[in-house]
């Protein structure tokens, strides 16, 4: 059954109307799993003509969630981070990412310091979507080129972000871009 971006956005909205918390996001993630295996969707938004980068392909007028198509034409890795007040849902369309989730084991009282402990490691495979609720710290390792879709709870460029260095035990607060 073909499944379009428009259908996904309608189903995502319906999920959030029922519940904006974790259960609503799990429901949204199951719809995202239908979208990322749709050959027409992948060809249009994540096709071989796309350069590396992220493109916002939908902004929801009711809930302000965003759908972003990510093309990474090479291997890449990022450090542990969370998206502050925004939840995010990642859906893997091509190849896979090695995901690590982390927890802070300090009390947050020392500015710039953070003790991180890895709590989960797993591979997010083609056709799978995963929910990261607000504040969940995660890092991505992409040994191959990848295509993925990310749905975010708001415009990430307007939120604070927290980037951690587990080896140095530090955290940096990144100011909004705009
Ligand atoms: Fe992230």
Condensed summary:
The chain has 178 residues and is α+β, with helices and mostly antiparallel strands.
Q: For the record, what CATH class applies? A: Mainly Beta
CATH fold type: Jelly Rolls
Q: Which value, in Å, is the CA radius of gyration?
A: 16 Å
Total separate domains: 1
CATH architecture: Sandwich
Q: What is the SS-derived class?
A: alpha+beta
Considering DSSP H and I runs of 4 or more, what fraction of the residues is helical?
Answer: 10-25%
Order of helices and strands: HHHEEEEEEEEEEEE
Beta-strand percentage range? 35-45%
Q: Please, what is the CATH homologous superfamily?
A: Jelly Rolls
Indicate the overall shape.
globular
Strand order in space, largest sheet: 1-2-10-5-8
Describe this structure in words.
The chain is an alpha+beta fold. It has one domain: Sandwich (Jelly Rolls). It is 20% helix and 39% strand. It has a five-stranded antiparallel β-sheet with strand order 1-2-10-5-8, with helices on one face. The chain has a four-stranded antiparallel β-sheet with strand order 3-9-6-7, with no helix packed on it. Strands 4-11-12 form a three-stranded antiparallel β-sheet, with no helix packed on it. Helix 1 (5-18) runs antiparallel to helix 2 (22-35). The longest helix is centred in the N-terminal third of the chain and has 14 residues, at 5-18. Fe (ii) ion binds at residues 81, 83, 88, 138. The site of fe (ii) ion (FE2) has 4 residues, from loops.
